[in-house]
Amino acid sequence: MQRLIRSAVTLVVVIAVVFGLLRQMPIEGYFNNYDKMTPTQIRVGLERHGLNRPYLRALMSFLGNLLKGDLGVSNRYRVGYPINSLIAQKMPISMSIGILALITALALGLPLGVLMARSAISAKRFKAADKAGSAFIAIVESIPFAVYCLFIQIYGTELIRKYIYLPMLFSKENIATWFLPVFSLSLANMAMYAMWMRRYMIDEYSREYTRLARAKGVSEAAISTKHVFRNAIVPLSQYLPTSLVVTLMGSLYVESRYSIPGMGGLLVDSIKRQDNTLVLALVVVYTALSIAGVFIGDIAMAVLDPRIRLTRSQEAR
Amino acid sequence: MDSDSIVEIDGLHVSFRLRGERVHALRGVTLDVKRGESLAIVGESGSGKSVLCKCLMGLLDSNGEITEGTITFDGIELTKIKDEKQWLNIRGSGIAFVMQDPISSLNPLMRVGDQVKEAVLLHQGLSGSEARQAAVNALSDVGIDSAEKRYMQYPHEFSGGMRQRAVIAIALACKPKLIICDEPTTALDVTIQAQILGLIKEMQKKMHLTTIYVTHDLGVVAMIADRVAVMYAGDIIEVGTVREVFKRPAHPYTWALLSSLPQLAPKSGELYSIGGSPPNMANEISGDAFAPRNPYALNIDFVQRPGYYSLSPTHKARTWLLDSRAPRVDPPEGIQKIRRGDGL
């Protein structure tokens, strides 16, 4: 509960700052044909948007509308079109791609980390899986996202074209076109999860309880799944918010590369066209998502680890 | 070798690769453990006590290897085992382990009961609710009250002593023939220590177990063991019944060890401590490993390694002082006091 309130406060602070900054922007951002307007028209327009009110009152009314679920109206991107329905159109695609990318990252990154850790602690002199995995992580982490994303688009499309027809750009109906954007979006998180999973697994392998489990006669496979993995996943859940943000940021680029009609493209366009109200609304949405990520990470940690309590208890030392 | 030994270790050498060097952790350990007895292994840190136990469980760290010698447990030659599967049959059901630190030896994210049940499932051939009941019984057997409720709790809800009881419950739930206790009470305070030792002793009698204690606490040895083996620099330098080793110690290292007991120190004066430090195990040791720290060392101690000299059928020590050609040496004051019977 405390965390929920704290999250809400963070959100309001971010909104207040962005709201204030956007008020410093040229007022063209509120009109679609500013050049041809007379000063009177501009004054009337500003009044209609409530823009000549003092900062605090304007902020309050924006927050009030936000509570009612109203993000306002777009003024340049699509004149007079409610931002709510704009987001409602774009959100589902971005969400599905983002969630698919996160799932892919977890589904491939965690097993890779486990594999690497098991290879790293094995008695073998040459730890092939660990070496190969480290190379993969180093490559993904060191090459800029935009570069390998472009490579994947160009060469990946070519490669797949050898087997099936594949357009270079995204289309919602053609499932095959989902593959490359989701994959490139998941790579950064995949490497991150594999890296930390490996590290935490190795940590847990050296713990006493692992020795006790071995001494009990538990098989190596059961030790890694029942004991080590379970413990290593707890500190890993703190990377959930980070990976969410990485996905959001990545989506800005990926969506424009594959011309996916999603939120990322919308934000870029709205900034380019100085649609102040739309920018504000989108920043609010992105902030809310990031804060939700932190919140979910905390919850996940508490669910996974019985020692962690989210509320301050009386018995705490 | 006689058939009532459960463990027979013969000439065991173990070495570790460490930053390009070979460290000889065990240098020809020979030791028998009799069925049903309780043997204590004492020695300072780094003398190879824990390595010896790990060899018995097949849990040597991956950079260590047995280079020479044999270990026979209950008729099985342990050094020949290559297959991890075969080890799984020995660990737990053959040899169980109670570790030093109860705080970290339980999985923090698993209910204590489930950790006991895991052992039951693996070694007692029970399943489902039967296994659960057996685990609850195992917990109450080691003196944990309201075991049914405790079963559902996590390790952080247990105190240190309770955790060690749970670890013992896990060890016993495996129905082992031999239990190795690696300093089971070092991390506990003194009152709990006595309780845990009492518990282990009681369980040993009830389940006809053989126990090996690894410890550097001579008080614990006196309290619990039948026989004691003294280790120094990867070798057993004296072995005998507790009475023999404590009353008539023969090796200068055992003298020094016993002299450092605070009970033997003069009322006013400093506690005795052994000068120097243990040898670097990465170097080749010639002669008696203790010679450089030994005020009674003979010239031959620096040249040739002594063999075992028997003092009685159960008592032997590895020192040149017992050779018939050696000059007569009087042990230090404290040891003479013990021999006269007014020491400990």
Describe the structure.
The complex is a heterodimer of chains A (317) and B (344). Chain A is built from twelve helices and no strands. Chain A is an all-alpha fold. In chain A, helix 1 (2-23) packs antiparallel against helix 12 and helix 7 (176-205) runs antiparallel to helix 10 (240-257). Chain A starts with a helix and ends in a 13-residue tail after the last helix. In chain A, 31% of the residues are buried. Chain B is 31% helix and 23% strand. Chain B contains eleven helices and twelve strands. Chain B has an eight-stranded mixed beta sheet, with helices on both faces. In chain B, helix 3 packs across helix 4 (128-141). Chain B is globular and about 70 Å long. The two termini of chain B are 34 Å apart. At the A-B interface, helix 8 and helix 9 of A face helix 2 and helix 3 of B.
Overall radius of gyration of chain A: 24 Å
Q: Determine the fraction of residues in helical runs of chain B and give it as a percent range.
A: 25-40%
| Distance between the amino and carboxyl termini of chain B | 34 Å
Percentage of residues in strands of chain A: under 5%
* Helix content range of chain A: over 70%
Note the main sheet of chain B: 8 strands, mixed
How many strands appear in the DSSP assignment of chain A?
Answer: 0
- State the strand order across the main sheet of chain B: 6-7-8-3-9-10-12-11
Q: Structural class from helices and strands of chain A?
A: mainly alpha
- Distinct helical segment count of chain B: 11
- Tally of contiguous helical segments of chain A: 12
Shape designation of chain A:
flat
- The poorly predicted ranges of chain B are none
Total E-strand runs of chain B: 12
Terminal CA distance of chain A: 21 Å
- β-strand amount of chain B: 15-25%
> Could you spell the SSE succession of chain B in H and E letters?
EEEHEEHEHHHHEHEHEEHHEEH
The assigned structural class of chain B equals alpha/beta
The overall pLDDT average of chain B reads 87
